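=== RUN LOG ===
request id: a7f3
mode: sequence -> structure
chains: 1
length: 477
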Amino acid sequence: MTMSHSLFSKIAALAAAVIVIAGCSGKNDSTIRTKVPTRPAGQEDVIGLTAAPIDTIHIGFVGLGDRGSSAVRRYRYVPWTKITAICDAVPEKVEKWAGYLEEKGFPRPDGYTGLEGYKELCERDDIDLVYICTDWAHHTPIALYAMEHGKHVAIEVPAATSIKECWDLVNTAERTRLHCMMLENCCYDFFELSTLQMARQGVFGEILHAEGAYIHNLSDFWDGYWENWRMDFNYRHRGDLYPTHGLGPVAQALNIHRGDRFKTLVAMDTRSDNGKVLFNKKKAEGKYFQGEEADEFRNGDLTCTLIRTENGKSILIEHDVLTPRPYNRMYQLVGTKGYAAKYPVEQLALTKEQLNAIGIDYPLKNEHAPLPKDLVDSLRRKYPTPILDEELERKAKEVGGHGGMDYTMDYRLAYCLHYGLPLDMDVYDLAEWCCLAELGTISMENGCAPVEIPDFTRGAWKKTDGFKYAFSDGTMR
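=== RESULT ===
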């Protein structure tokens, strides 16, 4: 699953052939634009897509590493679902997790092994959803094969690693009319859910700027990736390779393709210092990177991407898995009347006038400081997310998965499939959040030039007015 640097250069040169530098908006415009393919004849957008309700959702899991096995454990508790089949390249993992389910009193799922075992799983006629948790390079190929065989798909992050893969998933979802959702669990973290509701209710005024990141020192994890796939990906690719944890929650707060859209980005990175150190360590172990050189390590130790939306909002996204910085998703919403941030500590700030406007009588003495904790707690109780009640939140925290957000994500996916509702996240979210990797590379390799972000909805981004959740009573709220 590796690619030589010379082959990568040839592919990059071929990709550059479809990129144009256009001057249509002024003589000084140097924005780089990628080709937006015409929607195939007979195809329509999938904004608000619904499918027939599914009484019991039969699921096939592909990939049983850390993320996949955690999902198998969680789905013991997700209503309306049955684990019908599991698949992994390593036979021992399939046997382990099939036995685990059997020991817990569940029917033993059918098992599939090998790099193409997923094909047999997808070809079955008794599976409704294929849940994909493999290495990144296999996400899109498996998802495409599953949709071609009539299955809804849920794909771990990032679901796509190139612009071509984004378009392939969009076009296949539109043609097959099947759900294609990326499993962006950070959209279901409790603070993000609460502040999203505040944003939707206008508590922060108009959101003008947002920030998000994936800052996570992976020193303790590199050795755990099957066949060294994650470091290998960092070695061969430049840009923000893992943007969606930071981007997903703020994109929802900004109503992306629900009244606004990403328009342009500019990206830049540092040189690779720690990346080369890790490369040399792996190479010295004698198993990986033989015949390759550290100087060709493409991913910088830190990548920054700045996005501007059609409606004049801005977003800052960072990627850093190679420095000692403490874990930080840098979640921030900056509005005309208020502010929310989760890292390094949870904070809210509102103007005195806005506190009064939302009916809170509080003697705010200092508008230059965050609100006190008791007031923050009061606001979070005042603006609960509509998708969680006390019982479901308690269950999510009990089952777990990054504190409960994974279970909330799984529950909502199953809920919407069971009742035949639009999913919380669609294939356009997937494409918009994943495209930063390649577009950022294009920007950096052209002197940090602005790059236009494709409209994956092809004009349908105004059809929905604001982010909403679907419910079984027929409401969107």
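=== NOTES ===
Confidence is low (pLDDT under 50) at residues 1-18, 21-27.
DSSP finds 16 helices and 16 strands in the chain.
=== END ===
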